[in-house]
Amino acid sequence: MKAFIEKVEQREHLTNQEMTIAAHKMLDEQTPEQEIMSFLVALAKKGETAQELAALAKTMKEHANEVQGVQLLAYLDNCGTGGDGLKSFNISTTAAFVLAACDVPVAKHGNRKVSSASGSTDLLEELGIPATMDLSKVSPLLKQEKLAFIFAPAAHPKLKRIGQIRQQLGTPTIFNLVGPLVNPVDLTYQLTGINRPDFVIPYAEVLKKLGRKRALVVSGEQGMDESSLCGETTCALLDDGEIISFTITAQELGLPEYPLEAIKGGTPVENARILEQLLLGKKDAYYDAVLLNAGLGLYAAGKVQTIQEGIHRANQAIEQGKAYEKLQAVRQYYQRLEMTK
């Protein structure tokens, strides 16, 4: 590990093989914490490359618990990296119900709150959906409803020690970027928000290295890890190996512009109420934020030719009650499990 630390401290990038070895060492309980901390700090100062991030993601997937018996569907994940500090409402979690209602199979990776007042797992539990449940319950739900939420710590038990190290550091590291890349379900499509507009294209390159057929990386106003209704959103589309960069605004897509404060979230109880009212058709800034991000998800999955068409289909899914029905169906799945205990 010391050789890798020295190389990175010299501002030299690691090869795929070097980063793979370093990643295995970071996940090894025998590696001293101080070495891991020094390596993460040096890597952050140098600036992570797409190759280094891809190597870490592949290694983490090797160490992850598997989701057994997953039906062979073309799954999408729409989770973001988090960490933007903007405390927005749980947009991607809400959009997941809309996407599944539009016949996009969604395997959504998530965790508890870090920089927000309510992480996806906190919100889901308030809705009666225990996302912390063991992975054996994921496959039947994916087959039945084409939607399941995967609790990251259940999939990646070796990250517990890394989490403690990151808490001690208190600064962003490469692990702030890796969450959306290590879903234990093999993904075909991906919509990912990151909080670094400058890293949108390299992140799309990582998704290419990981074998995604089509993916969309977005970074909104003030580094929001979602597409934003305020200002410009920086985007990179991966489509069959080609990466195309562009920007979008809400107005050019036919949506109103709102300040970031309009989509602020609250506690899990407050966010659960917003989500339910939204899926029942209440139209406001939260509604339009979900429309935009669900529309982008449909576009990322190749279900529509344009983002505008995706927004229209997402709106139909909510107005026709299909998105709320999907929420109810997932809830009932877990209620039945509780009754059979």
TrEMBL record:
HAMAP family found in the cross-reference section: TrpD
Cofactor note text: Binds 2 magnesium ions per monomer.
Binding, anthranilate 2: 166
One Gene Ontology term of the molecular function aspect: anthranilate phosphoribosyltransferase activity
Name of protein: Anthranilate phosphoribosyltransferase
Chain sites annotated for binding Mg(2+) 1: 92, 226
Pathway: Amino-acid biosynthesis; L-tryptophan biosynthesis; L-tryptophan from chorismate: step 2/5
Annotated EC: 2.4.2.18
Catalyzed reactions per annotation: N-(5-phospho-beta-D-ribosyl)anthranilate + diphosphate = 5-phospho-alpha-D-ribose 1-diphosphate + anthranilate
Lineage: superkingdom: Bacteria
Annotated residues for binding of 5-phospho-alpha-D-ribose 1-diphosphate: 80, 83-84, 88, 90-93, 108-116, 120
Species of the source: Kurthia gibsonii
Keywords (A to Z) from UniProt: Amino-acid biosynthesis, Aromatic amino acid biosynthesis, Glycosyltransferase, Magnesium, Metal-binding, Transferase, Tryptophan biosynthesis
Residues that coordinate or bind Mg(2+) 2: 225-226
Designated gene of the protein: trpD
Assembly mode: Homodimer.
Domain Glycosyl transferase family 3 N-terminal: 3-64
